[in-house]
Amino acid sequence: MANNYVLNAAADVFEQILILELEKKTKKREYWVRKWISRRNTLGASGTLLKELHFEDPRSFCNFLRVDYDMFYELLQKVGPIIQRQNTVMRTAIPAAIKLQVVLRYLASGDSISSLQYLYRVPKNTISCFLEEVLDAISSQLKEFIQVPKKKAEWEIITNGFNMKWNFPQCIGAIDGKHIVIKAPKHSGSLYFNYKNQFSIVLLALVDHDYDFTCLDIGSYGSASDGGIFGKSALNTAIIQNRLDLPENSVILGDEAFPLKEYLMKPFPRRPNQHIKERVYNYRHCRAHRPINSWTAHRERIHNSTSSERERPILGNQWKKNSKCFVLL
């Protein structure tokens, strides 16, 4: 009798669990579209704040998206046909302009998708769906700007710029690396763990005299050093194989993390009673290395800032919006 009682009780519990699971699956949605999201076009940031900034304060518009209105519109013309979806009888598609604004704000501020959801009145699950799509569209449509100088005359413009602006002759660029914090991939061990006790990938950048990127190497393990990444990079291989048509005796400026080579210069070691010539060279070297230092310093400030400080511009006014770069993966 006791065994039958236990079996009957277990069967009743199991039946109730099945009923609850079926109710979850057949439960009707409380809202097809939440009311506050349905007012996206009239009350969202795209239809209110950005319109006000465009007409009343263009500089703040540029600060908000890190591009001015003309450049935003030009970019929208390029990626709009790719990211725009058709309206259906069920619902109206999100405009391409709003998608692009959300992605640009995400890149400019590093804000969370949850915060962008309330700012633009776009559900966070929807943002996570189109985020990668918009980024791929931007990358594919701006390939014409992603190129490294290929002729000696183009390199000579850079060397002349370093000589005139930074008082350093025969320099084709300043190089440095920046750790981009990531969530550690599964089963990656310590490959992405860096000296800052964070998981990251490294962005190695070469910048010209006018703060424009000329070469990028993205995706190396955070545990690797800048010098090791440069040694394995396509840029270093191209220089060794003389495929870049560089001016004679031209050099790249790096910091102490890079190895000393004929085409790569670094400061003298810091020590007491340093010779005056070494101190003068270090001053000139660090001064000419400033374009890349400005970028890494701004990125470091944004990463360590509080939420209120993150509203400041990531990049200084000296940065050009049309930077040409060659992405080396």
Set down the secondary structure blueprint.
Layout: H1 2-26, H2 35-38, H3 40-43, H4 49-56, H5 58-65, H6 69-83, H7 96-109, H8 113-120, H9 124-141, H10 152-165, E1 171-181, E2 200-207, E3 213-221, H11 226-232, H12 234-240, E4 251-253, E5 264-265, H13 276-288, H14 290-304, E6 327-328
Parallel strand pairs: 1-4, 3-6, 4-5
Antiparallel strand pairs: 1-2, 2-3
Helix pairs in contact: 4-5, 6-7, 6-9, 7-9
Notes on the structure:
With 329 residues, this protein is an alpha/beta fold. The chain is built from 14 helices and six strands. It has a six-stranded mixed beta sheet, with helices on both faces. The longest helix is centred in the first third of the chain and has 25 residues, at 2-26.
